[in-house]
Amino acid sequence: MNPGQIAVLVIALYMAMLLCVGVLSGRVFRGTAADYFVASRGIGPFVLLMSMFGTTMTSFAIIGSSREAYVSGIGAYGKMVSWSGIFHSFCFFFVGIKLWHYGKLYGYTTQIQFFRDRFASDKLGLLLFPVLVGLVVPYLLMGVIGGATSIEKITMGAFPEIFTATKGGIPFWLAGLIVCTVTLIYVFFGGVRGAAWANTLQTCIFIVLGIVTFAVIADQLGGPVAATQQVAEYNPAHLKVASTPEDQANYEEKLAAFEAGDSPIKPRQPHHVPPIVFFTYIFIPFSVAMFPHLFQHWLTARSAKAFRLAVIAHPLLMMLTWLPCVLIGLWATSAVMPNGEPVIPPGLENANAVLAIMVRKLAPTMIGGLLVAGVLAAIMSSLDSQFICLGSIFTNDIANHYLKHKKLSDKTVVLMGRAFIVVIVVATYLLSLWLRNASVFRLGVWCFTGFASLAPLVFAALYWKRATKIGAYACILTAAGLGLWFFRQAELTSGREFLVFGMMPVAVILSASTLALIVVSLATTPPPEATLAKFFSPRKPSPLSAAAEPVTSDA
Amino acid sequence: MKKLVFVLVAVLAVLHQDFWWWHTYEPLVFGFIPVNLAHHVGISIASSVVAALAVKYSWPTDVDELDQSTDGGGSQ
Hints:
The complex is a heterodimer. By secondary structure, chain A is mainly α. In chain A, 71% of the residues lie in helices and 0% in strands. Chain A has one domain: Up-down Bundle (Sodium/glucose cotransporter). In chain A, α3 (45-56) crosses α15 and α18 runs antiparallel to α19. The relative contact order of chain B is 0.14. Chain B is mainly alpha-helical. Chain B is elongated. The longest helix of chain B is centred in the middle third of the chain and has 23 residues, at 35-57. Chain B has a two-stranded antiparallel ribbon.
């Protein structure tokens, strides 16, 4: 059995284990929509932490982080992780707990139900639905692209006679198909409970295996100190957030040595992160306040207290996941094999493959297979939640909402949700074939930009009595309009960041959507007293009466 | 105490802009982590500490009370 075939075997075993988890959780499934979509609100602190964390971390954290560190240096950590460490917990604390509370009190299953009720507008749901689905699709894309790229690279050499174009590796199209199909199956068996269980398992796996990957690769490079010294020799600018004129001179000197054949490493262009860009990444983490898949996990909590562990431990888990990947991406810029060849080929086109190449070339075969299972764990633990969330918002906010008079059974509701999920997954899969070289990091930043630009809506809904439904419309339309306009001008395959007025686009879009929400709300009629009483009174009304009479006044 | 949590979050945001280390990677912490990266790892750890303070001193007890008073009524 060659190394590629061993990797295939490990991946196959891993997929089989996930299917078993799905089947086992399916046995606990009570057959009701509430159990399928919110696990009967019975998830405890540890599983809640793991499922929330596993859902938030996708290939962006594993593939995207190592890619970004390889392309532009250590700034990747400061731009994403330390900002997120501060503000993810902030959002869980100030948004998550409150939304969980209203979800339990009024029986919500989706974000749209909450916003419809809070802004007393039925049609707001029709506007939010395509916006949220449209933003989840790039999130799915990151997972499919990251997973398929990793499988293709790590299984290279497995079947040289069948897959000649990929040197024997399982090709991207087949790998993506496998990832989507396995995730779909275990989600269909177990719903959100299956996803929560699988996420817990997968999150433990990817954190542990991430640390193992780091240790194994560091060892193969002569230890972490030697690996970093190699970067200091060939790509010192990658160890800094901003390069200096000396770094540019050093780059030109190293490049000349490489071109003359005196050096095995082609140096990477020094990268400079302008202070305003570094600062305006601050807005990206607010995206978690609007992730529909995270909202769904919030609703699964057994009690408000179940959030405590997640609020405290989330920044630490992010650090444990990202730091090894960022260091591996840095080391990849300058790593050399024992035979003197660079680990990463100088002409590498798809930098998403950096981590997979490092693992394949430096880790022992069996560990390499396990490590790719860790990468898949990170990816699939997000895909599953997003699949369920899509099914949930379609069935609850569109189908069930508009077909109330037909009194659909729970079985029919779950079936409709599954059908919608399949349609979206097929569309995402086809898109992944087209965008396979897109930067997972850039794709992620755009996706988070969209969600973050909608964050004022949820903060206003929870904390500002004067926010009105017309203000909510203005906020969503401004975020969607500006976001699409900027996105059309961005290059997803380029290593360059797309900036607006020298800042991250999220700063401009979020400011505009906030302004639109405030100005239009103040210029329009305040929300009805019944709505304010429902959401801002110190003592809440009886849950049964509140749920029975949702406030919707579009007509 | 809630105000203190907000102040600490703001302090972390200010510390995040560690421009004084942007043009250097030395000292290397433990011999392999550039100082700027180590600083940001420190911010991740500090975020967790601030979150723990928020949970201990600013916990929304009203949510707990209302949760207990409506237990079983609102969940589906």
